[in-house]
């Protein structure tokens, strides 16, 4: 029996090594492009989310501070949440016109119609929970003082005494966060930076960089959005 050999065009043909390498290279380029596209898409997604949270935080921060200031009689700015008296311990350590710090205290008082004495009945504080020049969250506390207190009866450090009794420094990281992360940008006369600037003892200027990230860490650069924040409030006096 005679066997017929198929023509050469019908024989099975294998891929050469060069063709395989070319195919792998092309697939690698395609996969790399897809990964880069997905990565960019995720970055855009997280950035847009962070920007939305920044806008939300700024609106809330502005509205809350404006309302609190409207019901306060005066304000005090301190270097930070922990520094309440001078190094000698003989006087309160609040700052003066032209200086900036990271702790804003809004004070509400009632006035005795007979004596004219002021009695403190409420404290509202905003402070940056971070070391100097570092990035950290902004927290808020509200304390109702009942019965109200005449600060002249508290000695040489009345506000420090009142704060230590109602808002101890040990509670610094326990109060609610109103801004996830902030970098202070307000520079005072002593060249120190703070979030709150005392303008002529009449208004508080708030100046800082508001930061939002996906994880809450300032080092999360892949999911980070930043916006500079400027605002001013004035207690009713």
Number of domains: 1
User: Quick one: how many beta strands?
Assistant: 11
Beta content:
25-35%
Structural class: alpha+beta
Could you state the order of secondary-structure elements as H and E? HEEEEEHEEEEEE
Biggest sheet character:
9 strands, antiparallel
Quaternary form:
single chain
Number of helices: 2
Mean pLDDT: 84
| Helix share, percent | 25-40%
Q: What labels would you give this structure?
A:
single chain; alpha+beta; 9-stranded antiparallel sheet; elongated; two-stranded antiparallel ribbon; 237 residues; 2 helices
Structure characterization notes:
The protein is an alpha+beta fold. It has one domain (35-233). The protein contains two helices and eleven strands, in the order H-E-E-E-E-E-H-E-E-E-E-E-E. The chain has helices at 17-70, 158-166; strands spanning 74-78, 100-101, 103-111, 118-128, 136-149, 177-184, 186-187, 193-194, 196-199, 203-213, 224-233. The strands form two sheets. Strands 1, 2, 3, 4, 5, 6, 9, 10 and 11 form a nine-stranded antiparallel sheet that branches. Strands 7-8 form a two-stranded antiparallel sheet. A hairpin with a 6-residue loop joins strand 3 and strand 4 (118-128). The longest helix is centred in the first third of the chain and has 54 residues, at 17-70. The model has no long low-confidence stretch (mean pLDDT 84).
